[in-house]
Amino acid sequence: MSFERTFRDDISIVLAGEAGQGVQTIEQILTRLFKQAGLNVFGTKEYMSRVRGGTNSTEIRVASFPIAAFVNRVDIFVPLDAKAMDHLKPRLTDKTLTVGDRENLKTEKEILNAPFSKMAAGIGGELFSNMIAAGFLAGILHIELAIVYEVIQYFFGKKSADIIEKNCTAAKQGLEFGREACAKHRIHCELKRDPEVVGQIMISGHEAVALGAAAGGCNFIASYPMSPSTGVLTFLAQHGAELGILVEQAEDEIAAMNMGLGSWYAGGRAMVTTSGGGFALMGEGLSLAGAIESPMVIHLAQRPGPATGLPTRTEQGDLELALYAGHGEFPRVLLAPGTVQDAFLCASRAFYLADKYQIPVFILTDQYVLDSFYNAEEFPSVSGEVTYFVVQTGSDYKRYRFTENGISPRGIPGFGEGIVCIDSDEHDEGGYITEDSDVRTAMVNKRLKKQNLLPEDAMAPEFFGKEGYKKLVLGWGSTFHAIREALRRKGEGDTAFLYFKQVYPLSGKVAEYMRQAKEVVCAENNATGQFAKLIRRETGLSVDRKVLKYDGLPFSVEDLVAKL
Q1: Which of 160, 183, 199 is a domain's end point?
Q2: What's 127's DSSP letter?
Q3: Going by C-beta distance under 8 Å and a sequence separation of 6 or more, which residues neighbour residue 226?
Q4: CATH code, 368
Q5: 362 and 248 in one domain?
Q6: Which residues form the domain of 193?
Q7: Left, alpha or beta for 128 (phi > 0: left; psi -120 to 50: alpha)?
Q8: Most buried of 106, 301, 356, 435, CB within 10 angstroms?
């Protein structure tokens, strides 16, 4: 039985086990360990909607160059139980090196036997088998023991000296076993290290959205927990005091939205974070924001529907929900970041746009982009750059005064002499209820005028490619990294890529890019091509081909290489 393998420059490691077996703990330790060793790291997870049982997996890519996309390929597989073997079977090939405890896995398949449980028993129990596994992988990747100890101290620094010592012992035994396995079976992992990676940040989409909101001046968040948006709420709850953000877990999404509107009315800068089913309850509040011309920032983390759907999987299925939600007609903006840098940028910008135009602004993410993480350069500082659009009111103040551009000066109670009157019924310039037909028409026109201004502040799509391209690939949000890597792999040649981090309103340049191509392809994670339909509605141009995926999983690079 031969386990001889050579892995160069880009290694995909997958760990899998049932919920409660510590897959996430190994993931956190390994990703920090690899980064501190100067290796580029990307991690993403796939998990079931249950507290115990099922099968969860995490993919950790380690590379000599920056990487940030999911691949279907599995180079090294570490199953923690027998079910994990069956769950990952479609992704395993004869090139996959499977490493595990043969006794626990109860399998006759060709695996490199690693008796993690027996080794852990001599240290203090089954609890330490995960650390032995982490040490084993560190040994295979030739990472120094000193770096392993440093990471253990980072994670377990607040634990007792005995716990730290036993984890160090477990990691050392695993590392030595890994090195012995490499020598015995001629397993070679060749990766180039980059000292600059050590100083970079490791950040997830959840954290990037939360920090971007803080950078945009957010000082209040009200939400009801709902996967996959909850990470933004919990991160801000953990760091609210130092960021100056008040965090409220509301009794439901209806209350959360109304709390957010109340905050903006009083002079705060609020956000709600939710997923499709939770946002469905916010529809009336969204329409209220349209009527009273209140700023509002909504982080809508997409997952597969309808109804509960697949609550822990990913999909780009709520674009049309965000675009058409709320009764009546009123303007809005939809941002859709595809990188952690853009998640930070879009979340920060959402507050600027909401405040400037007095409209709701959506940040559309999904489970994949939120739960994925990788090493990145530090985000630019935006300290002192928050722009506020509140005015001090006079005694003659009218909240909805007619203006040439449709934007009325926004006052807040107590800041000036004026009365800040708002009402969900149709109202006149002063904010008082009216059923006058002429005033009604004027107010609708006033609100819709702002829609004509929004393209001035629209983020243009980013173009990747050469002039004279024949094929143009369109992608939005979380498809960014997979499309970029797929095109690099197949050789971009006469193919170009147009990436949208703002999906509504669209930049006026979109039609120009499309007209230059002989074939336009749109790749998105939904069943009906929602973005392709939006493009046709806005530009009158149709895409020639749609590449769609809606099984609850993200595009892999291999998927797109084959289909593009």
Answers
A1: 199
A2: G
A3: 253, 274, 275, 277, 278, 301
A4: 3.40.50.970
A5: yes
A6: 5-199
A7: alpha
A8: 301
Residue with tokens 């006058």: 436
Instruction: Please list the helix, strand and coil fractions of the chain in percent, rounded to the nearest 5, in that order.
Output: 40, 20, 40
Q: Angle formed by the axes of helices 145-156 and 129-140, to 10°? A: 150
User: pTM of the prediction?
Assistant: 0.95
- Helix (H), strand (E) counts: the chain: 21, 22
Give the separation between CA 297 and CA 276, rounded to whole angstroms: 15
pLDDT for the residue 380: 77
DSSP 400: T
Please tell me the predicted confidence (pLDDT) of residue 238. Answer: 97
pLDDT at residue 383, rounded to an integer:
58
Structure tokens at 363: 């940040």
Instruction: Name the token pair of 57.
Output: 């997996």
The yes-or-no verdict on residue 326 having pLDDT over 90 is yes
**Nearest CA to 301 among 265, 275, 324, 319?**
275
In 83-172 the beta strands, taken as DSSP E runs, fall at 97-100, 112-113
Rounded CA gap, 117 and 61, in Å? Answer: 26
Q: What is the pLDDT of residue 384?
A: 63
- Which region, left, alpha or beta, applies to residue 162 given φ > 0 means left and ψ of -120 to 50 means alpha? alpha
Single residue among 376, 411, 437 that ends a domain in this structure: 376
Rounded-to-integer distance, Cα 519 and Cα 525, Å: 20
Q: How many domains does the chain have?
A: 4
> Cα–Cα distance between 316 and 479 in angstroms, integer?
9
Specify whether the CB–CB gap between 462 and 484 falls below 8 A: no
Which amino acid belongs to residue 512? E
Would you say residue 448 lies in a domain?
Answer: yes
Are 168 and 259 members of one domain? no
Q: Given the structure tokens 């001889």, which residue do they identify?
A: 4
Site of tokens 């993403």: 44
The set of residues, in sequence order, having a beta carbon less than 8 Å from that of 283 and lying 6+ positions away, is 325, 326, 327
Whole-number Å distance between alpha carbons of 7 and 40: 15
Mark whether 349 and 398 lie in a shared domain.
Answer: no
For residues 241 and 355, state if they share a domain.
yes
Question: Which tens digit of pLDDT belongs to each residue from 62-90?
Answer: 999 999 999 999 999 999 888 999 899 99
> How much of the chain, in percent, has pLDDT values that exceed 70?
99
The token pair at 479 is 């498809």
Inform me whether the pLDDT recorded for 21 exceeds 80. Answer: no
Tell me, yes or no, whether 411 and 469 share the same domain.
no
Percent residues over pLDDT 90 in the chain: 88
Q: Are residues 487 and 403 in the same domain?
A: no
On whether both 194 and 328 belong to a single domain, the answer is: no
Query: Is the pLDDT assigned to residue 127 strictly greater than 90?
Result: no
**d(Cα 213, Cα 220) in Å, to the nearest integer?**
10
**Which of the four pLDDT bands, split at 50, 70 and 90, describes residue 241?**
very high
CB 326 within 8 A of CB 290: yes
Cα 176–chain centre separation: 37
The Cα–Cα gap between 125 and 376 comes to 37
**Domain for residue 381, yes or no?**
no
Residue 15's nearest CA partner among 61, 59, 75, 70 is: 59
Mean predicted confidence (pLDDT) in 228-252: 97
CA distances (Å), origin 276, targets 113, 226, 312: 44, 9, 12
Q: Which residues pair with 160 in a beta bridge?
A: none
Query: Per the domain annotation, does 370 fall within a domain?
Result: yes
